[in-house]
Amino acid sequence: MHIENTSEGKLTITDSAEANTSIFDLPREIIQQIVSYLSLQDICQLGATCRHGHSLTHDEDFWEFQVWKQFGLYFTTDLNTVTEALAKTSRYPLEGLAYDPSVQGNREISVIYSPEFKRIMIERNGKAKQDPFRAKLANSIKDILPRLLAFYVALPVGVEDQFSARLVLFGPGIESANTKLLVRRMVNARSSTFDAVEFIKGLPGGIGSGVRINYKHMYNFDLMCLYSNSESIRESVYQNRSTGRLDPELNRMLVKDSTGKLAIQPSIVKLLPTIHALVFAVDTAVDSREKVAEEVEVMRKELEVMLESQSTFHLSTPLLVLACRSESVGTNCFISLQEIVEGLQLLKMKSPWGVFEVCCENMRGAEKGLDWVLHHLAKKRRELSYHNMQGQSR
Fold this sequence. Notes:
By secondary structure, the chain is α/β, with parallel strands linked by helices. 39% of the residues lie in helices and 18% in strands. It has a nine-stranded mixed beta sheet with strand order 3-4-13-12-11-5-8-7-6, with helices on both faces.
């Protein structure tokens, strides 16, 4: 028994077992479900309350659940878990998944996709360097423009995240009549998310030309689009004939070597060593379920030719697959994430890869994919710079 004297002078009697009961006595799955409704700030504060709270908010399973619920994503450093995740039944739809051995866990993924959490973690870890100009700016206009300040503070600390990565975009998704809007949305954008700032000159002949895009005022990247042929030929030949993409006479990206095997044309091969990431766009709309296997097999062969050419340079280049769909397409039959992962044989890849569903009308999903791959590249560049500095100091 537990007796307590209240402020009103009344005695309350409770059972001692009830007095010692806390939320952490519940099953872990139920606790995770309850805590998932808290804001990120509240979750961080919960982790500072006691050892149980600290353990929960540092648990990888908890953050995996958070990332799936909040962002519809699944990230892993172990390829053996992908098949199980794809077959998992969940009330929260899966909109993308990625394999990235460099990620420290789903807590890091939360940092990527949540500016609020990123600010909290920088402040808690004391990694934010005090900028006198930023402090003066904050003190002078914090009462006038709080939203501007929140946006300003969310920018990366330092200039290492501002380097210009080179991404090459190719695949049937940028040429299909259903999803070619994707490229126009990126290249012609003038928004806070995609801002095409300048034209990038490619190799002689125009190979590798593109645009430089300022992305969310956080990253710059050069986007180079590789088309198989002129627009008129693509529309007249590829309609209802996806296998035409594997014909070198129709797809100018391809040639046949001395053995008759498909390969990337030499002018594009010269470009590959300068590429930081491959972006492969596919159109997931199909006329019927019977055509899924055929369509995915053509995608796999086209991607395989590019990956084989890239592998000759021994580069661990991340692959971003954009599974595009258009809301205006009059079909309810789409290729699923599982069919793309298995059909493209991504589970055999050792390099980082990610597959994200993309709506071409509002670019939903494309941002998630770019957030991941640009974070990966910026992190890789920082680690390389660190090791170079360590080598120079010896």
